[in-house]
Design a protein that fits this description.
This protein has helices at 2-18, 57-62, 68-78, 154-160, 165-174, 373-379, 391-404; strands spanning 45-50, 92-97, 103-109, 114-122, 126-133, 137-146, 190-200, 204-217, 220-227, 235-237, 258-261, 264-268, 275-278, 281-284, 290-292, 297-304, 310-315, 320-330, 339-340, 345-349, 359-366, 369-371. By secondary structure, the chain is α+β, with helices and mostly antiparallel strands.
């Protein structure tokens, strides 16, 4: 009987094995049951905000209860790399504290390229300051736009096409020798532009150079390509390698004023009420709008001039002089004999002298005779073309740009920009 029981037990054990178990298996561990979350103290505490209006670095440090000796050491460590007086309201900052409550690091957004970092490297108050470059991704973007009834300016068409106002201004400057964007745009005009864009944190964007652009204006097809001739600054050239730069810009504004009165030998004066010659072009613009020099030159005068109000007079090469009337104020450092560069701000729109409202009366004189600026500017010769020994390189840049202009959004890439800059 005992033997049968042992055999039965053995058979039962074998049966268990046949079912996938084992007489010697350990019992399964109990299944884990989730408990309440455990709160872990963060390693750091961050205080971040934007600099308030009328705030100073001293008041910012005081708001963090920084002791006076530590604040002094903090500021002194910063001085070699950043002037504390350059703190600007609206710029973001952050204080980063360790678990012991000690300040570990301070960061402040200086500009789109750099931020200030002040680190506490030793207790109680030893700091090191450095300017750090933001990490950015370089992209090239191609976009198109059209001048139509809804978007009847380059600015509006650029925004509607997904571009930025900075790109519109840059593009207007590129074509400033060929198109007066204040008077010559037509419905149906169209453009395409390829420009550099720099992105940080996948959010903040800054804009670089226009690398290439095409513009169809009243049936004219215009092209511009950025290219650097060896040992010269980058410049813009048309599809044949001719310079896009002319001696004079088409208007004394960076962008978008409107013509309110044209050149005429017999115009009814809005203040005097008599017919007299108007030897310039009036541009309507808000008071304070920057006025720029249309060409390199030197200052003849910058002073009040009777009915002309505050006026700047510049002398240029080839017998030309330009006049800028009714300014509210002058640009910095304008004295007789001072050199000015094309595009430099020389004053600001106003209504001084005999003027019914804010505007600029712009005049151009050639060999002692006033001429119509809108006509004369277009007839001036361009600058030097791409030299023969650089044409092959230029054509490569041109052809690549034309291919890229066929798309809208280009992928990110790591190769250098089109021009050799």
């Amino acid at each position: 009987m005992f033997a049968r029981l042992r055999i039965g037990a053995l058979l039962l054990g074998l049966g268990l094995v046949g079912c996938g178990g084992s007489a010697f298996d350990e019992p399964a561990p109990p299944q884990a049951v989730a408990g309440p979350d455990i709160y872990l103290e963060p390693d750091t505490r961050v205080v971040e905000d934007s600099v308030p209006r009328n705030s100073t670095l001293a008041s910012l440090l005081a708001s963090q209860n920084m002791p006076g000796d530590a604040a002094y050491a903090f500021v002194e460590a910063m001085r070699p790399v950043f002037d504390p007086r350059a703190l600007r309201s609206g710029h973001p900052y952050k204080f980063i504290y360790g678990p012991d409550g000690r300040l570990r690091r301070f960061e402040y957004h200086v500009n789109e390229d750099q931020f200030l970092q002040v680190a506490n490297v030793a207790q109680p108050s030893v700091f090191e300051a450095v300017l750090v470059d933001y990490e950015k991704t370089h992209e090239q973007v191609a976009m198109r736009g059209e001048i139509n009834r809804e978007n009847n300016s380059l600015f509006a068409a650029m925004i509607a096409g997904g571009g930025d106002s900075e790109v519109a201004v840059a593009m207007a400057e590129v074509f400033s020798g060929e198109i007066d964007f204040n008077t010559e745009l037509r419905l149906g005009d169209g453009f395409a532009v390829l420009y550099d864009q720099f992105v940080r944190d996948d959010v903040h964007r800054t804009y670089g150079d226009v690398q290439a652009a095409t513009f169809t204006n009243d049936g004219r097809q215009l092209h511009a390509f950025r290219f650097q001739v060896p040992d010269e600054a980058p410049a813009y050239f048309d599809a044949e390698g001719r310079s896009m730069k002319r001696q004079f810009l088409r208007s004394p504004f960076r962008f978008e004023p409107r013509v309110t009165s044209r050149f005429s030998y017999r115009r009814l004066h809005p203040v005097l009420g008599t017919h007299r010659a108007h030897l310039g072009v009036d541009y309507g613009a808000p008071t304070g709008t920057p006025v720029i020099a249309v060409s390199n030159g030197s200052v003849v005068s910058a002073a009040a001039s009777g009915g002309s109000g505050n006026m700047v007079r510049l002398r240029h090469t080839n017998g030309y002089e330009t006049y800028y009337l009714h300014l509210s104020r002058f640009g910095k450092g304008l004295r007789p004999g001072t050199k000015v560069m094309q595009g430099q701000v020389i004053g600001y729109v106003g209504s001084t002298g005999l003027a019914t409202g804010p505007h600029l009366d712009y005049r151009l004189r050639k060999n002692g005779t006033f001429v119509n600026p809108l006509i004369e500017h277009r007839n001036l010769p361009p600058g030097d073309p791409v030299p023969a020994d650089a044409m092959v390189a230029f054509e490569q840049v041109r052809d690549r740009a034309l291919a890229l202009l066929g798309g809208r959004q280009l992928p990110r890439y790591d190769e250098p920009a089109l021009a050799n800059n």
